[in-house]
Amino acid sequence: MDEELRFSYFSPTLETTLGVSPRRELGHRRWEVALNADDTAFWQAHIEHHENRRPFRNFIYPYRRVDGRICWISVSGAPIFDDHGAFRGYRGVGTDITAEQEASAQLSLTMEKLSVANAKLEERNMLFVTAIDSMSQGLCMLDDDHRMIICNRRYAQMYGLPEELTRPGTPIRDILAYRIAQGLYAGDDPDAYLSGRMTVIGCDGPVQVVDELKDGRVYQVVHSRMVCGGSFATHDDITERKRAEAKIAHMACHDALTGLPNRLLLRERLDRALDQFREGDPFAVLCLDLDNFKTVNDSMGHAAGDTLLQAVTRRLQICVHDSNTIARLGGDEFAVIQVVPGSMEGAAALARRIIEVLNAAFTIDGQQVVIGASIGIAMAAPGVEADRLLRCADLALYRAKRDGGRTFRFYEPEMKTDFNARRALEIGLRQALVAGEFELFYQPIVSLVSGKISGLEALLRWRHPTDGLLPPSKFVPVCEEIGLIGPLGEWVLRQACREVSELSDELTVAVNLSPLQFKDESIVTAVTQALSQANLDPRRLELEITESVLLLESTETIGALHRLRGIGVHISMDDFGTGYSSLSYLRRFPFDRLKIDQSFIADVATQTDARAIIGAIAGLGAKLGIETIAEGVETEAQLKALLSEGVTEVQGFLFSEPVPATRLKDVLSEAEKMAFIAA
């Protein structure tokens, strides 16, 4: 049944068992379908189980078939919850026990006839024996002195009774003693079991007990008084039914892939730990997220990802004490309730151990896979409820991942403020692209050969509704993390090409690209579409990439760069000199320009080492036929030093600050009247 307690699925055996088409019953409530008796009070307790989302077992009710025949059904079921603890309906099984009920009814009828029809005693006794021996249940009838009247063949088989213990007149105490000697009893105390069974046999009303025997079998025994005196008991083997119920219960509380407790069971154990904490036992909650798992899942497939999660589970079980709880919350997220040792030092030690163990390489499908883990820790505190504790651990996990991953952080109150601010920023960014709050500013690039403006660099700005104009450093990293850099980068390309197409045909425009824009080949399509829509000559577009793009070491990335250069687009390396292997990339890809990072420019007029590095880069560029651009030029002294070292182009506040597109024509008009640098 779904969360509205309406039937959403029946097995095909519904029609053969009850004579009802499954399709006809879908969409109805349980009691709307099954309630066909006048006594609605009979159903009330069963309905309350559904409404209170509790499991139910062995609920027996009569069902009137379409053809008018009554059959008896025994049902068991359990509620279903998703990974977030939300109620999603019921799953249950039903068993047709009409034969057993009819046999029991026939038995009672036969017994009554035996007491009033002595003339046909032998004939009826034969019918009686035949009836009870055909039952699937075990049956034992006792007189008022608790001696055997009769038992059927099934009863003897269930307990392995020798023939002498099945004869009329045998005391039930002897039979129980034999069963105890054979180990066929429930509980750990034989004397208590014997005493308890004798008490049940002596009761006036019907009594139902469930025996879980030592060999794993489970019997349901119902003791009832007979009208003619004495008592009888039916013994039903419900082992398979119990296993099915246990499986359903396990599925409701455990993760199918790893076998670990799920969020629902974690919450129950967390509530229990909090109850113990109020009595003085401290504990910690650790929320764990795997680093780089998505990359493995995407590159190797979901089957490999599942295998990796199972391997992670095994390592976690080695790290965590048996008295603690490990749970899988979903995806690559796990949680640990650490009650031993329940201290900050113990929690930190466990976190270090988990990170160390999960940092070690895994072998998945014959390949070495390296991931890692980030962990957030929250300590139980007076008055803190389960949801709050999990939330605090999650916030600490968020901080650990922001700090680079493969580390752990304890929860601190200011983390909530940081998270809320970050969340507000994410929401604002998603709305900003739709609302048109982004705009481009442009900073002129000056040729040191002609002394005139040769191009422009497009610089992204966000005109925030309350915080004003924000530079890209404030929001681009977040855009990369939340997957917004793709559509935002495409907008920048279209806008830059369109706005520059309205200017002089001699001006180029440089656009910065994020490494994430090279995750697939859509970057080539985005560039060609932007050029086409703006009717801009590809030679007027320059794409600036950083070394991190080439660190992907992807043939697709190199291929995309070559295709872009093949259509006439220029490619430049930004922040040149700050990476650790930039020189090797100059051999792998023919860049058009090298952009010298402004950290060198700031000291070029005063520090000989900075000047030497710039001179080396300019000289390297000249020999390779690559233009060199110095960014962040602010003083005449810096400009003079750059000229002497052979840099070909410059940009910076010395010439112009970044300006919006509306001011570009004025800036260019003023620049035409003068040369910035003497040729």
Strand tally is 25
Helix content: 40-55%
Q: Structural class, please?
A: alpha/beta
CATH homologous superfamily title of the largest domain: EAL domain
Strand order, sheet with most strands: 16-17-19-20-21-22-23-24
- Total discrete domains: 4
- Mean of pLDDT: 87
Rg calculated over all Cα atoms? 40 Å
End-to-end Cα distance: 83 Å
Note poorly predicted spans. Answer: none
Strand content: 15-25%
Quickly give the CATH architecture of the largest domain.
Alpha-Beta Barrel
Care to give the gist of this entry?
By secondary structure, the chain is of the alpha/beta class. The chain is 44% helix and 22% strand. It folds into 4 domains: 13-96, PAS domain (Beta-Lactamase, 2-Layer Sandwich), CATH 3.30.450.20; 100-243, 2-Layer Sandwich (Beta-Lactamase), CATH 3.30.450; 254-412, Reverse transcriptase/Diguanylate cyclase domain (Alpha-Beta Plaits), CATH 3.30.70; 431-672, TIM Barrel, CATH 3.20.20.
Explain this structure to me?
This protein is an alpha/beta fold. The protein has 4 domains: 13-96, Beta-Lactamase (2-Layer Sandwich), CATH 3.30.450; 100-243, PAS domain (Beta-Lactamase, 2-Layer Sandwich); 254-412, Reverse transcriptase/Diguanylate cyclase domain (Alpha-Beta Plaits, 2-Layer Sandwich); 431-672, EAL domain (TIM Barrel), CATH 3.20.20.450. It is 44% helix and 22% strand. The chain is elongated, with a radius of gyration of 40 Å. 31% of the residues are buried. The mean pLDDT is 87.
